[in-house]
Here is the input.
Amino acid sequence: MNDTAAESQPRDIVLEYELEAPPEKVWRALSIPEFREQWLPGRDLASAEPEGSTPPEEVRYRMRDGEPPFLESLVTLRLRPAPGGG
Here is the structure.
């Protein structure tokens, strides 16, 4: 593989957020469609069903965007408890 091909390969984007809610509550918001719809509407998902999950630590959704470069992406949401309990 040459340098040009390596540069054109997709790269992961990692964003971290600390939430004030306990991990159990966040997991419910991610995994129960009625709760998920409030903050992650179905119109943003390529499929309403998760691509996979490891309860209560990780869930993966295929998401879509209306503009390039990422018209469709696999997004992995990972939960880890914070030292303060959030």
